[in-house]
Amino acid sequence: MADLNPKPWSQTSIVGKGIPRIDGPERLRGVTCYALDMDVPNMLYAATLRCPHAHARVVKVDLSKAREMPGVRAILSDADKEAQIPWYPTEGPTPRALSRLFDAHCRHQGEEIAVVAAETQFQAWDAVRAIQVEYEKLPFVTTMEDAAKPGAPAVHEGGNRAAPPSVYTRGDVAKGFAEADVVVEETYRTSCELHSSQEVHGCVAQWDGDLLTLWDSTQSPFDIQQGVAESLRMPLSKVRVAGRYGAGFGSKLDPSKYHLAAALLARKTGRPVKYFLTREEDYLCVGNRPAHSMKLKAGVKKDGTLVAFEMTAAGEVGAYPAGAEAGGMLRELYTCPNVKITEDQFFINAGQNRAFRAPGYPQCAWALEQTMDTLAEKIGMDPVEFRLKNVAMVCQTEPDQPYTSNGLPQCLSEGAKAFGWKEARERAKDQGPVVRGVGVASGMWGFLAPPHATVIVKYFQDGSANLNMGSADIGTGQRTVMAQIVAEELDVPMANIEVENADTQTTQFADGASGSRSVMITGPAVRAACLDVKSKLLEAAAEQLQIFVGDLKFENGEISGPAGTPRTPVRQLRFMRQQGVVVGVGVRAPHPAGKSIRPFCTHFAEIEVNRRTGEIRVLRMLAAHDSGRVMNLATYSNQVIGGLTMGIGFAMTEQRVLDAGTGRMLNANFHDYKIPTAKDVPAELAVLPIDPHDEEVNSTGTKGIGEPALIPAAAAIANAFYHATGVRATVAPITPASVINLLNQGRKQG
Ligand code: MOS
Questions:
Q1: 515 CB under 6 A from ligand 1?
Q2: Distance (Å, rounded) from C-alpha 412 to C-alpha 625?
Q3: Which pairing describes strands 465-469 and 497-501: parallel, antiparallel, or unpaired?
Q4: What pLDDT, on a 0 to 100 scale, did the predictor assign at position 746?
């Protein structure tokens, strides 16, 4: 048997190149079919009536007028027996549902009251407006600080604690602080951010007999399949979820209510149903990054040795919990013997938090990396040198587990060199209204579950290939990267590879596109499938040519033997003539035992602060990343540039604003919720890949780039702000108004 999981390539000719995306031209021409573009014959459109209040009880719903509106074919509400589906399970050993598909107790603005299916979108919305509802308004809370107070309005019976406090400890922090020469303490706060995926959430549902098909904008077709099958008590084989294109940052990993409502309405009407949310609904109802408050105390010795970290954090989960913790990176990034992290999570009357690009990590970086900056200053060390001194080469949470690789020292030192750190740090800050500063921050990404992927590669007699994999390409360019692996192994030109992916009916099982792991999970399975093809070809050739298989080679569509023997084109193999195709199967091998796998990174930022207007301009950034091997320099750079851009939003503009008077969200639209635009993002975003040549991580040598690309970006900007102004901005985003408060009025930011 051939080894399908060899060491990573020592040399490559296709893998690593910045090859343009195989689906780039179609995407640019607008002919790719996203779920939102999916129109099927005889389709109905769905629209939702949502609770307009932050907290209310539905006393009465009258659908009679709405039912008579033109074009209405069905309305789904709590009155329907089939809609009694438990929703929002709690976490922990004995999960219970906190709500139902339609629940008379509405705990945030936007909770679902009824969904209408009608012949046109306009008729569906007209009917929604004809539904008459009587609400009993309830008192509400919009901040976790208020939610934690005794006597606060209860989002759920039993109080506003969304989970019991979690405590992580190692060593003894009291002893650590006693040994410290310098101890600092500060409270940092980050804001609730919205995913703002370009494609809104939604799907098209269709029944063919008892087979349900959902064309979905999803990161994880197999998770949607599983969740929908469970809720509707159907076998997995009868639920097809297909989502070849579509994008998400964590809010499209598991089923949402629209999946179920679309399926039920399609069954009720016997017609396909298209159900997409509006941008406003997208902002209110399908997820966000929770706001965090993090009190961080840190102790260091004069020589720069970290001795203790103590964090008390609270996360604002919204009305339903989805896990809001921020301590992960603090446990691991730096060597520190004494660490204590206490985390709380509180309900408020607002939409549920959900996984969002590196859940918890950018928040942690905001607190930790600013603290590292402060400590460095207090002991008179350069911030880069200080970090270098404390890089952990052995996983701090699993002390016996070395990392398969850790390129953080190179990220810091080579990044500093490429950025011109020393020079930029020493250059005059300018006097007058505009001051300049540079900052640095590091990060790591720590999510890793056991990997699952099965891949099939079909190699045809003309030397072309079909790659069949379950993984969704959420805009990262994964389909291209995977095709490069096929091209590398089987010498198939990129143009002759067809990639079929993300369809639970026609492709093989794969973990969802989450945790920055798609390439590192499915990539090795693709390579294994190619090696299986190769091995089958060689075995068939050995039998036919009567040559020892070990003496045969497969290259460019031909089998060659020892010197002097003729070359045999694959299509002339008897096996190929009989079968027409060679089918290779690759299964993802487990992670290496006893090792930790982490990507690492360091970001540098240079900014200007206008002390008169409070405006911040990011002049340039550089991101040095150890994500293992770069599979495609173009898609890799895209991820990093996207991450830095999102970091600029985190640092400077993005926040959900809830009105204290009504509890309603004031900026549930692209105009008022400010994601960075071309005017906010500098042209100079430099990408510096650090490849530690990880031989152990998997057969491709790659670790994942999507989330690391965001993690320390905002903290680097905050540190640059401190360098420019001498004032610490502890609250994200650092808006012009908060800058003015900080600098001119001497008030505390916030
Ligand atoms: Mo990501 S938050 O794992 O989609």
A1: yes
A2: 9
A3: parallel
A4: 60
Q: Whose CA is nearest to atom 4 of ligand 1?
A: 250
Q: What is the pLDDT of residues 500-519, one digit of tens each?
A: 999 999 999 999 999 999 99
Give the atom of ligand 1 at the shortest distance from the alpha carbon of 358: 2
With a 6 Å cutoff on the Cβ, whether 557 touches ligand 1 is no
Closest CA to 485 of 469, 472, 470: 469
Ligand 1 neighbourhood includes 245 CB (under 6 angstroms) = no
What is the CB-side half-sphere exposure of residue 747 using CA atoms within 13 A? 9
Tell me how far the alpha carbon of residue 250 lies from the centroid of ligand 1, in angstroms: 4
Is ligand 1 within 6 A of the CB of residue 357?
Answer: yes
> CA 427, CA 262: separation in Å to the nearest integer?
59
Q: What pLDDT is recorded for position 747?
A: 47
CA 517 to centroid of ligand 1, rounded, Å: 9
Nearest alpha-carbon partner for 733 in 191, 366, 144, 142: 191
Mean pLDDT confidence for 380-396: 96
Does residue 215's CB lie within 6 angstroms of at least one atom of ligand 1?
no
Q: Give the atom of ligand 1 at the shortest distance from the alpha carbon of 356.
A: 2
Q: 390 in ligand 1 pocket by Cβ < 6 Å? A: no
Question: If you measure from the C-alpha of residue 408 to the centroid of ligand 1, how many angstroms do you get, rounded to a whole number?
Answer: 22
Q: Which atom of ligand 1 is nearest to the CA of 251?
A: 4
Q: What are 20-51's pLDDT values in tens digits?
A: 999 999 989 989 999 999 999 999 999 999 99
Ligand 1 atom closest to the Cα of residue 513 is: 4
pLDDT tens digits, 284-310: 999 999 999 999 999 999 999 999 999
Distance, CA of 446 to CA of 61 (rounded, Å): 47
Query: Which strand (E) or helix (H) includes residue 216?
Result: strand 211-216
- Tally the residues of the chain: 750
Are 348 and 290 contacting, i.e. CB atoms less than 8 angstroms apart? no
Residue 476, token pair as written in the block: 């990262």
Reported as a pLDDT band with limits 50, 70 and 90, residue 565 is: confident
Distance of CA 113 to the CA centre of its chain: 30
Q: State the CB neighbour count (10 A cutoff) for residue 695.
A: 14
| Concatenated DSSP letters of 557-585 | TEEE-STTSPPEEGGGSHHHHHHSEEEEE
Question: Does ligand 1 have an atom closer than 6 angstroms to the CB of 252?
Answer: no
**721 alpha carbon – ligand 1 mean position (Å):** 29
Residue listed under structure tokens 């139902």 = 100
Contact 464, 742 (CB under 8 A): no
Structural element, H or E, at residue 434: strand 434-444
- Do residues 650 and 732 lie in contact, with contact meaning Cβ atoms separated by under 8 Å? yes
Whether ligand 1 lies within 6 angstroms of the CB of 523 is answered as no
* CB 220 near ligand 1, within 6 Å: no
- For residues 372 and 384, give the distance between their C-alpha atoms in angstroms, rounded to a whole number: 10
Give, as one character, the DSSP assignment of residue 441: E
Instruction: For ligand 1, say whether the CB of 354 is within 6 Å of any of its atoms.
Output: no
Residues 6+ apart with CB under 8 A from 590: 450, 451
**Residue 694 tokens, joined:** 């990880």
